Amino acid sequence: MMHFSLSRPVRVHAWVISTMLVLLTTHTVVVAQTNSITNREMTLQSAIQRTLANSPELHEFTYKQQAIEGEIKTASLKPALNVGIEVENFLGTGEVSGIKDTELTLTLSSVIELGNKLHSRKAFAKAQSTLVEAQKQVHTLDVLAEVTRRYIDVLAQQALIDAQKDAETLARYTYQAVTKRVDAGASPAFEQKRAEAALARARLDVVTAQQTKQAMINSLAIMWGEKDPSFTDVEGDLFVLQSSPSLTALFTTLMDSPNLEIYAQASRLQASQVRLTQAANQSDLSWTAGIRRMNGIDETAFVAGVSMPLFAGDRNLGEYEKQRAIQTQLEQQKESATQSLYHQLNMALMVRNNALLNVQTLQNSIIPPLVQALELVEQAYINGRFSYLEWVSTRQELLNAKQALIQSAKQAHQRGADIESLTAQPLVDTINSSFSRKTK
Predict the structure, then answer these.
(1) How far is CA 177 from the centre of its chain?
(2) Residue 411: which residues within 8 A CB-CB, separation 6 or more?
(3) Range picked from 184-198, 277-291, 362-376 for highest mean pLDDT
(4) What single-letter DSSP state applies at residue 422?
(5) CB hemisphere CA count around 37 (13 angstroms)
(6) CA-to-CA distance for 70 and 74, rounded, in angstroms?
């Protein structure tokens, strides 16, 4: 079975943006492949593929695009031709009684659009399609970040279970050692009871952690609609971590992110709306042509007419000013969103760097001395030089340090997922060094 660090699969974020449409259009193939997995251990890449193939949140955009395609077809239509029939001078009184003086007119009418309205409508509808595509990319990044965070939750919980099992093993060994000393009369009986309670607590912690892990697995599987998860573990090494790029590099990458591109597309859509409103300033020309039959004189004649609204530009001025104001508002919203994204990147990077520092310090400077201290205190207790309390206290310090290491590694990975979601780029592309696990 291939074993990889969590930092490697998160490359899928950037890859999946470019191949997202292919995956979604080959839904049946992907489902067949992923459902054939019988391995009880889930990989991050498989979790992402399953989510892309089955997430209703993402498939919703397919139907949005279909709706817009219908709008594009409608926008491409030219003004309709109208057929009309008009009857005059019939069923009256006196000389116009009956139908002897009836005038029957058959007309054909339509509108000649001026101001390039047809092109403006089509451009607006196509701009809507482009905006929906940008929204889909942003939403996909959010979904991928969420599935990655849930995956990391499970991975961290697995590491916590390992730590709790180690604590249970140590508590059992402690109970056995204390029992021997109590039986030999070298320690008071209450220490045995305390050791027994500590062992029960350690067992409870393991069971609780396992139940929490199952709930986290359920939450992960829900991302692709699986209510009864077919896997029991996830694959990856929580303690393999990549160092962070500089904030300046992240700011540069952010400028090409879909999180900002969506504002550019919204601005283009609004520009199309402005042009469409501007085109409405030009009045359309309505025309009518037809044939009139006059029964009273038994003659036929052609009729024709044209009409055009007056002062259409003045009547449309308010709407035009409104759309221009919205366009300017969107530009301000983009600036505000850019500043907000800068802040989010800065905070995510700060938290991640702090977590990386904690991981490095715990692995290199805190856990190794505590392991050695525990061995020394254990031997000293067995030799009767230290009390049971000192042994338990040292053991708890080591367990706390391991739990802090797990939480720090988890936080580093999750904030890394946040950064990738904001920039749409994998962190590992600009990284050469890594933090590797030194101890558990």
Answers:
(1) 53
(2) 351, 352, 355
(3) 362-376
(4) H
(5) 20
(6) 6
Strand partners, 86: 105
For residues 391 and 284, what is the distance between their CA atoms, to the nearest angstrom? 92
271-276 contacts: CB < 8 A, separation 24 or more? 271/127, 271/327, 272/120, 272/123, 272/124, 272/127, 273/124, 273/323, 273/326, 273/327, 274/320, 274/323, 274/324, 274/327, 275/120, 275/123, 275/124, 276/117, 276/120, 276/121, 276/123, 276/124
Q: What distances in angstroms separate CA 93 from CA 89, 90, 98, 100, 103, one per listed residue?
A: 10, 9, 8, 12, 15
The residue-averaged pLDDT of 49-65 equals 87
CB 321 within 8 A of CB 201: no
Strands 285-294 vs 299-307: parallel, antiparallel or unpaired: antiparallel
- Pairing type for strands 241-242 and 41-42 reads unpaired
Q: 12-25 and 44-54 helices cross at what angle (nearest 10)? A: 40
d(CA 363, CA 280): 69
Of the candidates 333, 346, 340, 343, the one whose C-alpha atom is nearest the C-alpha of residue 262 is 333
Side chain identity, residue 307: S
Separation CA 294–CA 103 (nearest Å): 4
Q: Which pLDDT score, from 0 to 100, does residue 105 have?
A: 82
- Rounded Cα–Cα distance for residues 122 and 208 (Å): 59
Distance CA 251, CA 226 (A): 37
Whole-number Å distance between alpha carbons of 23 and 144: 14
In this structure, are residues 161 and 210 in contact, taking their beta carbons and an 8 Å threshold?
A: yes
Question: What values do phi and psi take at 80, rounded to 5?
Answer: -75, 155
The pTM (predicted TM-score) of the whole model is: 0.77
Q: Which residues pair with 156 in a beta bridge?
A: none
Contact between residue 384 and residue 310 where contact means Cβ atoms under 8 Å apart: no
